[in-house]
């Protein structure tokens, strides 16, 4: 027999209308905190390079040495001024691509990792499929759109892509770097990050800028404070650095990250398993970002199967978190039983 135990505590978020598109995502669970036109398809310019960097990092060693070849003739626009025959590590090329938005670095890396730029773009789009995103298509690794349709995505999709990339420690380190020096076999490089938000607000933890005449300004940033981790994406928006910083300040001031499910202390009153000297646990704590006045909108349903044998670590049910009537998260519930019941 299954029991459903309901705990009533999800959140009403104010949506502001702006020119262009923006979204603020909780980095820990991909939930939307605030946004406007978040699923509207737009050109994304050089924030494309978040996906480019992610694919490179996951497919080759950063210590690999790369020799610039004829593919450099395909590069134009924003540049770190590579020349044919120049040798750099994958690591150095990544920093040049992310800090200075070097289209030449993106082309060289794509050709090296994919065997050709077109093959690398296929790898980028495979990652899109892996993330189950339906509104994004990459046509190049740079974000340029002058001689073609350009890369299309949404504020929401690019935030999901960024959140996924931020799970990689190598990416996180590059994403937050303000200044980087390196040398090739021909010259020395000294790069400062184009992302001004890194210097404007101490809690900003990374970002990537973008601009073309067709896409206008695009920007991704991340920030962390008091166990709150956020990602903001803006597309076709002016004054974007100030917009991002002001949004971070607002969210960090008004919101708290509430512990909704404690993995070692579930508030479930079940007499059957209590008599069997069993308690309940889950594998992960679950936090929910909310304003204090809105936390009451959360409710939890504990679904417990009394037919489960009282064996240690047995799956006994699930805890489902609802935002009003919409399920937003689920955790499997396990049994923790005393020794005499462990092998029944």
Structure description:
- The chain is an alpha+beta fold.
- It folds into two domains: 2-11 and 258-341, Spermidine Synthase, Chain: A, domain 2 (Roll); 21-237, Beta-lactamase (3-Layer(aba) Sandwich).
- The protein contains nine helices and 18 strands.
- A hairpin with a 4-residue loop joins strand 8 (179-183) and strand 9.
- The chain starts with a strand and ends in a 7-residue tail after the last strand.
Characteristic key phrases:
344 residues, alpha+beta, Spermidine Synthase, Chain: A, domain 2, Beta-lactamase, 2 domains, five-stranded antiparallel sheet, 9 helices, 18 strands, 26% helix
What is the CATH domain class of the largest domain?
Answer: Alpha Beta
Mean pLDDT: 92
Distance between the termini: 19 Å
**The CATH superfamily title of the largest domain:** DD-peptidase/beta-lactamase superfamily
Strand order of the largest sheet: 1-16-17-18-14
Predict the CATH topology of the largest domain.
Beta-lactamase
Q: How would you summarize the topology of this molecule?
A:
Elements: E1 2-8, E2 21-26, E3 32-36, E4 42-43, H1 49-57, E5 65-67, E6 87-89, H2 90-100, H3 103-114, H4 117-130, E7 152-153, H5 155-165, H6 169-176, E8 179-183, E9 188-192, H7 197-200, E10 204-212, E11 216-225, E12 228-235, H8 240-254, E13 255-261, H9 271-275, E14 278-281, E15 286-291, E16 298-305, E17 315-323, E18 326-337
Antiparallel strand pairs: 1-16, 2-3, 2-12, 4-7, 5-6, 8-9, 10-11, 11-12, 13-15, 14-18, 16-17, 17-18
Helix pairs in contact: 1-2, 1-3, 2-3, 3-4
């Amino acid at each position: 027999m299954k029991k459903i135990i309901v705990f009533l505590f999800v959140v009403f978020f104010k949506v502001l209308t702006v020119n262009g598109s923006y979204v603020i995502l909780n980095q820990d669970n991909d939930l939307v905190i605030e946004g406007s036109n978040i699923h509207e398809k737009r050109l994304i310019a050089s924030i494309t390079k978040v996906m480019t960097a992610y694919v490179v990092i996951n497919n080759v060693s950063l210590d690999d040495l790369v020799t610039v070849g004829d593919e450099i003739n395909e590069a134009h626009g924003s540049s770190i001024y590579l020349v044919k025959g120049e040798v750099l590590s994958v690591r150095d090329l990544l920093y040049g691509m992310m800090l200075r938005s070097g289209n030449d670095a993106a082309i060289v890396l794509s050709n090296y990792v994919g065997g050709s730029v077109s093959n690398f773009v296929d790898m980028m789009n495979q990652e899109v499929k892996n993330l189950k995103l339906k509104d994004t298509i990459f046509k190049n690794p740079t974000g340029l759109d002058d001689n073609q349709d350009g890369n299309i995505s949404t504020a929401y999709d690019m935030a999901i892509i960024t959140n996924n990339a931020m799970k990689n420690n190598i990416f996180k380190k590059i994403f937050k770097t303000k200044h980087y020096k390196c040398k090739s076999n021909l010259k020395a490089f000294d790069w400062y990050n184009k992302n001004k938000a890194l210097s404007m607000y101490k809690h900003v933890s990374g970002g990537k800028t973008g601009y073309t005449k067709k896409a206008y300004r695009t920007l991704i940033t991340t920030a962390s404070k008091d166990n709150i981790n956020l990602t903001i994406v803006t597309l076709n928006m002016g004054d974007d650095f100030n917009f991002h910083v002001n949004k971070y300040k607002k969210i960090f001031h008004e919101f708290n990250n509430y512990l909704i499910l404690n993995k070692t202390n579930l508030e479930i009153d079940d007499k059957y398993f209590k008599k069997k000297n069993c308690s309940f646990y889950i594998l992960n704590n679950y936090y929910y970002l909310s304003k204090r006045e809105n936390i009451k909108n959360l409710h939890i349903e504990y679904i417990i199967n009394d037919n489960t044998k009282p064996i240690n670590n047995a799956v006994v049910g699930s805890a489902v978190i609802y935002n009003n009537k919409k399920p937003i998260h689920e955790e499997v519930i396990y049994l923790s039983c005393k020794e005499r019941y462990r092998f029944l």
